[in-house]
Amino acid sequence: MGIVQWARIKSPWILHFPSPGCNGCDIEVLAALTPRYDVERFGILLKPSPRHADILIVTGAVSKQVAKRLKRIYEQMPEPKFVIAVGTCAVNGNVFQGSPFVYEGVDRVIPVDVYIPGCPPRPEAIIHGIVTLIKKIKGGGNGGKK
Amino acid sequence: MSTISLIIGPQHPALHEAERFLFKVEGETVIDVIPRIGYMHRGIEKLMETKTFVEGLYLAERICGICNVAHTLCFAEAVEQAADVEVPPRAKYLRVIAHEFNRLHSHLLLLGVAAELMGFETLFMLFWRDRELVMSLFEELTGNRVISAYVRVGGVTRDISPTLADKIKDKLPKLYKRIERYKKVLSEDPTFTTRTIDVGYISGSKLLALGAVGPTIRGSGVKIDLRYTDPYEVYDEIPFNVITYKEGDSWARYMVRIDECLELINIVLYALDHLPQGPICTKVPRTIEGEGEGRVEAPRGELLHHTIWRGGVTPWRHRVRTPTYANIPGVCEMFKGYHVADIPIILGSIDPCFACTDRTTVMLLDVESGTKKTMTIGEIKKKYWRR
């Protein structure tokens, strides 16, 4: 394990991309950052720019309008990059399945490493998802696929 | 001085949702704004036509997760009016309690986000810490933290237990004291006041002409509150004040919200004291013929659900008009003449919720080439819709 990998595991920085969901997951991601749950104690920081981020958190279903932007933001992130799909909308489209304007899942647009189902998932679930991803990174490689 | 186009969005730290604004800037001053809404469009109104009212309720509350009780309440009211069903009085009181809890968490959320937008991180954390208290009470009442499907067509899903009622009566006065303290911070602390006072001024008459609703217009001294002007559920039985501020700037719009937090705690305590006994739900026929409309004062303003049923199990047409959509023309006027650094604060002062806003934008605007194309519902059906 090199020093960069070590630092990344100790302090992964996240970028929050709110794609068209209902905002329920967005506020739960924010709640995970605030005093009761406080993910900053694990070194997890919310960053405004994709160029500073290691983990992209996508909440909500991906609409066809936003898909292009999401791809561009994913491409702007430096390697190695990881994606977490938060909420059932991001996992498979949820109630918006069958709508002609919505992709059924983020993985139709960009590769996803960790899925967190729930509508919306509780902050505990989101923290568990991030910790799972950190374990995956420790496994090595982009996305940790063995 | 030459004009520069400044693009904010779709992904931007000041916007918590994917939306794009094009600001025409001269030096540091904003002279014009072109909003481009529609990134959050999911086709909900069309999707609603394929759902029965039991399924449709779950879709309606996912229009916006923050004000989900307002949406389910509005949807239920519309369908109940179409089906000609009367809701039992206990259910009405329980709906009001859930609705006000939802408003409380929404206002605290916005005030926290506003503090974050101006770099006042400590206040953001304090607001969100106290919001967690509301969330845990809301969870005990409805079964989930955010999206709960508490209101259903014909009543509510759960009754309130006496122990929970006692707990709420015990905890809310403590929260009241905390919010009073925050009110003092918002009205006196220079970190907050210097960024908001005289920023984003707009007059009440201009907002009325632009069709603004909710706390946005109440911050300019116009007394419009559906709970007061057109009472639904049991708001005509509950005494409360409509909060208005005359100033018309961002500060007034934030102060309306914090005063409303104090007011609605009193509403919840009054509703708990006067909770009538009886059933909490009635039966609704499966097939409905008729037309109904629900109007509700959501945390961001007036919300309208209009539904038409033609004897089937699914609606023939369901129309939603959301408060942020009505406030967009108003907020575009507010930006003009103020600095670029004030943009997030002015935008935050209307409590934008773009998930509500984008449902049926049929005008497709190609951003890169600047061409506009309008599509009829028939064309959309032919092109995209597969039953």
Quick structural overview:
The complex is a heterodimer of chains A (146) and B (387). Chain A has 146 residues and is of the alpha/beta class.
Mean pLDDT of chain B: 86
The CATH architecture assignment of chain B turns out to be Orthogonal Bundle
Termini separation of chain A comes to 16 Å
How many β-strand stretches of chain A? 7
Q: What helical percentage do the residues of chain A reach? A: 25-40%
Looking at the structure, what is the overall shape of chain A? Answer: globular
**Structure class of chain A:** alpha/beta
Q: Which stretches of chain B are low in confidence, meaning pLDDT under 50 for 5 or more residues running?
A: 360-370
Count of structural domains of chain B: 1
In terms of per-residue confidence, which ranges of chain A show pLDDT below 50 for 5 or more consecutive residues? 142-146
Give the chain pair forming the largest contact, with residue counts: A-B, 36 and 46 residues
3D structure, described in words:
The complex is a heterodimer of chains A (146) and B (387). By secondary structure, chain A is an alpha/beta fold. Chain A has a single domain (10-139), classed as Rossmann fold. Helix content of chain A is 36%, strand content 17%. Chain A has helices at residues 3-10, 24-33, 64-76, 88-92, 123-139, and strands spanning 13-18, 45-46, 55-59, 62-63, 82-86, 102-103, 114-116. In chain A, strand 1 (13-18), helix 2 and strand 2 form a beta-alpha-beta unit. The longest helix of chain A has 17 residues, at 123-139. Mean pLDDT of chain A is 85; it is low at 142-146. Chain B has 387 residues and is α+β, with helices and mostly antiparallel strands. In chain B, strands 1-2-3 form a 3-stranded antiparallel beta sheet. Chain B is globular, with a radius of gyration of 21 Å. At the A-B interface, helix 2 and helix 3 of A face helix 1, helix 2, helix 5 and helix 15 of B.
